[in-house]
């Protein structure tokens, strides 16, 4: 230690400062413990499902609960993927519906959000409020009209009956409208002065600014469409067109009861794509949701 450092006076912390730091540290660890407990409670059902998917159906509800199966019954997963009712077909149908819905909905709601957020036209606010009011209609009330409509035009019992209703979304349009409304108008005005058309302004100026929120919306659309059971139940009757939620109901025993081992193995398998997508894009998702909340 140098002589100058030794001669420097020691800084004494005031008692009030130390008490405040202790309170902050205690609050930090308390919040962490509470969040860990809540996360654990949400994780327990998934852990039970994962454990039960590796057991025989008769051993699933044995008490005391055996969290680590002994022996591990891998045949549940083998039957799910290579059996008579393989989930490969259900996965391909769900993937096709999800990809088409994501691309179609993002294209529709991005244009609608830009029109409501950046453009100016007569009756804009009234039209937007009327559009938001449609969100108060429960989705279950629309299932029968959709069934009759698609049956009339010949699209009933096709994957189009699952894709087309998902192309419009009030929530997604509202979120993008808020994003575009908060974007600087000066950028578009400067481009118009330079002779750029509205489509060029949209594609080259405002659309790149919306990439983070579009990524977040893509995750939400993926999750909602991948797990949609009601629409598939009403619109699809041909088993070859079943999506994953509907396909999981086909794991039945000969007496008509659900074969829990294969059903849980199929449920675990259906969660893997959702977990992979969220883990890859979670940073963009959280950042976009935080920005949307601030706006």
UniProtKB/TrEMBL annotation:
UniProt keyword Transport, yes or no: yes
Transmembrane segments: 28-48, 90-114, 126-147, 159-180, 201-222, 260-281
Name of the molecule in the record: Carbohydrate ABC transporter permease
UniProt-annotated location(s): Cell membrane
Family: Belongs to the binding-protein-dependent transport system permease family.
Domain ABC transmembrane type-1 positions: 91-281
Organism: Microbacterium helvum
Keyword DNA damage: no
Superkingdom classification of source: Bacteria
Protein's membrane topology: Multi-pass membrane protein
Keywords assigned by UniProt, alphabetized: Cell membrane, Membrane, Transmembrane, Transmembrane helix, Transport
Pfam families: BPD_transp_1
């Amino acid at each position: 230690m140098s002589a100058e450092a030794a001669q420097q006076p020691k800084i004494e912390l005031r008692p009030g400062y130390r008490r405040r730091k202790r309170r902050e540290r205690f609050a930090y660890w308390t919040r962490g413990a509470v969040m860990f407990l809540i996360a654990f409670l949400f994780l327990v059902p998934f852990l039970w499902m994962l454990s039960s998917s590796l057991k025989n159906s008769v051993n699933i509800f044995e008490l005391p609960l055996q969290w680590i199966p002994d022996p591990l019954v891998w045949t549940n997963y083998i039957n799910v993927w290579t059996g008579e009712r393989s989930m490969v077909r259900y996965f391909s149908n769900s993937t096709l519906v999800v990809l088409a819905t994501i691309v179609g909905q993002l294209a529709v709601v991005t244009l609608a959000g830009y029109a409501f957020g950046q453009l100016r036209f007569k009756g804009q606010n009234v039209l937007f409020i009327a559009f938001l009011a449609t969100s108060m209609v429960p989705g279950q009330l629309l299932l029968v009209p959709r069934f009759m409509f698609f049956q009339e035009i010949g699209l009933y019992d096709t994957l189009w009956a699952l894709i087309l209703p998902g192309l419009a979304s009030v929530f997604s349009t509202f979120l993008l409208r808020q994003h575009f409304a908060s974007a600087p108008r000066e950028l578009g005005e400067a481009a118009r002065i330079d002779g750029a058309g509205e489509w060029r302004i949209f594609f080259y100026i405002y659309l790149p600014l919306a990439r983070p929120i579009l990524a977040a919306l893509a995750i939400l659309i993926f999750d909602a469409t991948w797990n949609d059971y009601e629409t598939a139940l009403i619109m699809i009757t041909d088993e070859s067109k079943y999506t994953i939620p509907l396909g999981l109901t086909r794991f039945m025993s000969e007496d008509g009861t659900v074969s829990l081992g294969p059903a849980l193995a199929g449920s675990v398998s259906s969660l893997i794509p959702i977990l992979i997508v969220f883990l890859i894009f979670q940073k963009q998702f959280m950042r976009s949701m935080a920005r949307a909340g601030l706006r």
